[in-house]
Structure formats: structure tokens, C-alpha cells
Amino acid sequence: MTPVSSRASGLPPVVILCGGLGTRMREETEFRPKPMVEIGGLPLLWHIMKGYGEHGLNEFVCCLGYRGDMIKRWFLDYRAMGSDMTVDTGSGTVSYSRRNLEDWRVTLVDTGAETMTGGRIKRVAAHVRDSGSDLFLCTYGDGVADVDIGRLVAFHREHGALATVTGVHPPARFGELQGDGTRVDRFAEKPTGEGLISGGFFVFDVRVLDRLPDDPACVLEREPLEALAADGQLHVYRHDGFWQCADTVRDVELLRSLWERNVAPWRIWGGSDDGKGSWPALRAA
């Protein structure tokens, strides 16, 4: 595991796209957003953030949309539900005994119920720039992996392009990356053959924010990435390890099975407390 370093005064923030409807898994997402689907009693979003946190990144910007209030509520309850507490019923004061809580700074931004991925990133641009870093990382709120984030960032800096996407080898139903060596010449939204596909886990120069239009219909995976590829400004970091999206109920059940059997490859952090039973299930009453 490689720690992330930054050329600027602050470490890169991590932007997580949490606003989608999750239409392919309505059984799980009818009453909650996809990032709140639970694996081992904890939201998928927590698992994603733990992976970044293990590499030293603790500043997150979550782009909220569908049922974003549930994500806000979870973080508001995070300290209380993850700690032992003493309540003085007379004075109403509450004191906490900290128990295995992460030291994260999480900015939760309502980016619109119908806003697309590029539009969501554009709407959090000010929060990204506030970090003081020349880079920011970005991923989807529905996929886990054992990507070495430190090596990913080092690869991005080494190649000097504005953007890096992590290429993986899962089922061929996502954007295929076509090019020569590490440089991406074409970003194809629909795969046309075998090869690496986009697994998310992006690294962007902050200048990419200026290339995103202030348009809620902007889809990151279309014009922005296609233009970066055409300009020679998009490279692919090859990841041959574990990657799995939670796109369907079957995907979620796979992740739950791996977690329950204690063979979850994305669990790169130590410790035995998985929080099982300690967190409220975010389901409809």
C-alpha cells in the first residue's frame, strides 16, 4: 500500500458520485440511495471511503442526488451510532467514548436529483479547489476495489496528463478504453470488443474543472472524457486486482457473501470491528 503525496499544501480531496437512481436494483434502492445499500451492516459508501482513508486520504466531497437526505442523516448519526455514550437525562448533555471512528472530513453537497455525472462534479468545484491541492480524485458510489491509490496518483503524476482513469477487467458493459500503451486515444461509452474497461477511480488535475460546462446534463463519460482522450490528456492506470460494481442485486449479494466469509478483497484496512449490528438499517419504516 502506497501513501498518497501531494505537490500542493493539502492532500487531494476525493469526490464521490452518490446521486444516481439505481434503477437496475429497485429492490434495494426504492427507499434509499445506492451508496447506502449495506454490506456487512455498513453502507457501500463507507467501504469506498475506508479504502481511500487507508491510503491517507480523509477529505471527501459527496455529490448527492436521489434521497441524499439519507446520506446526510447517516453522517449526522455517525458519531453517536459508532461510539459508546453517556446521556444525562436531567441536563440533556451527551458525552461520547470514542470507539474506532474514522477521522474524516465529509462535505455533503446537494447537486440535483436529475443532474448527470459531469454536472455534479462541476457543482462541487469550489469545494474541490478549497483543498489547496493541484489534484482531486473521483469515483462512483457503487463500486469497490483494492486499487493502490498511492500508486495510482504516482502514475498520474508520472505521465503528466490532465486525467487518469483506472482500467479493469470485469463484465464488458461499461466504457471501453482504447489506445496505445497507457495513453487513451478514444473513450467509448459502449464496448466494441475485449479489453480494459473504465472502473472509475479517476485522478484529475483541477484544471479539468474548467473543461466541464455548467450544465446539469453534462455526462462525464461522454464529451468531457472523450475530449480529454482526443487531446491526448487521458491515460489509463491498469488494475489487475479486484474490482466489483454494485449495479444489480446479484452484484450486491456477491459482495455481501465475500464480506460474510471474511474474504472481501477490497478490505485493505486492518481491525476486527466491522460495525456489524452497530448501525441503523436505512430502510423504510
Share of residues in helices:
10-25%
According to DSSP, the number of beta strands is: 16
Largest sheet: 8 strands, mixed
Unreliable runs: 272-285
Task: Give the oligomeric state.
Answer: single chain
Mean pLDDT: 85
Rg over C-alpha atoms, rounded to the nearest angstrom: 19 Å
Overall morphology: globular
In DSSP terms, counting alpha (H) and pi (I) runs of 4 or more, how many helices? 9
> How far is it from the N-terminal to the C-terminal residue, by CA?
41 Å
Portion in beta strands = 15-25%
Provide key terms for this protein.
single chain, 285 residues, 16 strands, disordered C terminus
Secondary-structure topology with pairs:
Elements: E1 14-18, H1 26-29, E2 38-39, E3 42-43, H2 44-54, E4 59-64, H3 68-76, H4 78-81, E5 84-87, E6 94-97, E7 105-110, H5 117-123, H6 125-129, E8 135-140, E9 143-145, H7 149-159, E10 163-168, E11 176-180, E12 183-188, E13 197-198, E14 202-205, H8 223-230, E15 234-238, E16 243-245, H9 249-260
Parallel strand pairs: 1-4, 1-8, 4-7, 10-15
Antiparallel strand pairs: 2-3, 5-6, 8-14, 9-16, 10-13, 10-14, 11-12
